[in-house]
Amino acid sequence: MTSLKIWGETTPRRYISGIVALNLPTSPDSGDWHTVEMLSALNRGAPIPLRLAGENTEFDGFGYFGSEGVIEASEVIKHLGETVQGPVHVATHPRAIADMLMFRLPGGSTALAHLDLDAWLPESGKASVARLLWKARKGLSNEQVLLLERLLGRRLSKGGVDEAA
User: Fold this and answer.
1) Staple 162 to which of 3, 103, 109, 157, CB 3.0 to 4.6 Å?
2) pTM for the model
3) How far apart are CA 144 and CA 121, in angstroms?
């Protein structure tokens, strides 16, 4: 058993997000062989964007999304063979993707081009991301909203299921 430092660095307002969260099996449709690769990268100290998000990090999405989609996942981490002391806070897949989109959005379409939402999410997951991004829309320009809608293939809405953009 190993114990990565990152597990102890989380709080309800400072959590694991981005590609690290996408590779943790926190739901039936998440985590895959990349989980082992991600743990290895974390163990080597690889610089991974958004490995931690929230309070006192490079990206704090609480102003956009509040605590929605941040879960306690210490049992999941333990099942990976990791030693965990206390709670481990992790973004759900939709929250991790919403964080990644908002973090990269200032860079425009070029910064978002590598995010393959079709590979990461089923349609229901895209609706969850759209619901999260709907919360952030007031702080975005019309151009940014349109860019996100094109990427998601749907309009940002409270329900997350509006017609295609």
Assistant:
1) 157
2) 0.86
3) 21
